[in-house]
Amino acid sequence: MSQEAAPPSDEELVRAVLAGDRDRFGDLVDRYQSRLVNYLFRLLRNADDAHDLAQEVFLRVYQALDRYDPTYRFSTWIFRVAQNAAIDQIRKRRLKLVPLGRRGDSEGDLPDLDPPSDDRGPYGHLRNTERGEAIQEAVDALPWEYRELIVLRHYGELSYEEIAQLKRMPLGTVKNKLFRGRQILKERLQSFLTD
Amino acid sequence: MSRTDRETLREWLYREQEGDLAPAEAAELKAALAKDPDLAREREELSRLSRLLVSEPLPVRAGFRQQVVNALPPAGWEAQHPRSWWLAASLFLVLAGAGAALVGLGSGRLSGEGALFSAVAALTDLFRSAALAGAGLLAASWKGLGLTLGHVADGSRLTAAALGFGVLCLNLLFVMLWRGARRAPQRSR
Q1: Which stretches within A117-194 are classed as H helix?
Q2: ipTM exceeding 0.95?
Q3: Which of A100, A141, A164, B167 is most buried, taking the most CB atoms under 10 A from its CB?
Q4: Residue B187 to residue A56, Cβ atoms within 8 A
Q5: A175 and B53: CB-CB below 8 Å?
Q6: How far is it, in rounded angstroms, from Cα A60 to Cα A52?
Q7: Distance of CA B99 to the CA centre of its chain
Q8: Is A140 on the interface with B (CB under 8 A)?
């Protein structure tokens, strides 16, 4: 009886790319593109921006691939790059919109000033449902400390352990913040949860 | 069975969604759910919430993978790749071999006969002359630079300090430009 070979791990793919097999990077793109685009879309609220930034993240990761430390998970690394890139983008947007002289905010409340984008690109129609809008608004309204973990968990599909590693937080803190975040979401989306 | 408070049970509901409950906790929760309809309803709502959150994923645009692969920039680490070394080494060997052949043929011009040997000998002389001229120019440039620096060093301390400051500024400018170029976004579109 023949056994189907297990797909290569992320780390094996990275090694193959570093050994000269450039096409294997495409396999990593396949593996992470949906999670990354959806994660960035929830943070940036614009489909085109999410795709552009996801591409930039992949390119940054490729350029720095030789510096990847395989003692950490590849998923943690790529999402950290994505998170930093998203925060940079949000800062740039804010610089364009916040009048000069306004005090700087700490990273903790950074995205609260992020303006909702009316231009949602060609995918905008997908969001034009009452339910979709409600989900987006509920996620956006979360305090940043909960929102980033909820987005990492549900849209980045990272495990508790991966989030703890990425955020350099104790595992218990991650669980607790996710618990609180979901509680808030449940209250705000109650009308969609009952029969 | 321990008497677990309601808040803890609610937290367990969330952890159950993640498959994060210990067997003992799962058994206790199951017992509590059988007795408490409100808790059972909350469990159902939580399950719906998880489904709701991921109910409308954004589709990745067609051809995204290829777009990324096509836009992959040359990375610094690629130069260290063994295949790259082999290519460079092979090229070096071929050029070195060609050079050695030219010099060897050129040295035998006195004993050799025919137009081919004469042509090769002339070509070799041309390369030698060019190399000598280049080396001479390079040496002269360095000597000139050395003389200038020596003149400045023999002059006032202020002049020497100004020169040092200028060199430092140029270095800083170079580093800033280099770092800026590294940070520049790589967009394919």
Answers
A1: 124-127, 130-140, 144-154, 160-167, 171-188, 190-193
A2: no
A3: A164
A4: yes
A5: no
A6: 12
A7: 34
A8: no
Residue of B nearest to A176 (CA): B11
User: Please, are residues B67 and A37 in contact by the beta-carbon 8 Å criterion?
Assistant: no
Contacts of B45 in chain A (CB under 8 A): 186, 190, 193-194
Q: How close is the nearest chain A Cα to the Cα of B102, in Å?
A: 35
Cβ atoms of residues A85 and A53 within 8 Å: yes
Block means of pLDDT (10 residues each) for chain B, 189 residues, are 74 85 91 92 90 86 93 75 68 82 61 70 85 89 82 74 86 84 47
User: What does the pLDDT read at residue A107?
Assistant: 43
**Pick from B50, B66, B186: which is nearest to A59 by CB?**
B186
Question: For residue A166, what pLDDT band results from cuts at 50, 70 and 90?
Answer: very high
- The beta-carbon neighbor of B75 closest among A65, A135, A154 is A65
Closest residue to B46, CB basis, from A23, A58, A186: A186
pLDDT by residue (tens digit) across B103-142? 666 565 555 567 777 887 788 888 888 999 999 988 888 8
The model's pTM: 0.62
**What is the number of other CB atoms lying within 10 angstroms of the CB of residue B166?**
10
Tokens of B58: 């954004």
Cβ-Cβ contacts under 8 Å for B54 (sequence gap 6 or more): A154, A155
- The packing angle between helices A171-188 and A144-154, to 10°, is 90
Tell me: the pLDDT tens digits for A42-81?
A: 999 899 999 999 999 999 999 999 889 888 899 999 999 9
Q: Which residues contact B162 (CB under 8 A, 6 or more apart)?
A: none
Dihedral angle sign, alpha carbons of residues B91, B97, B100, B106:
negative
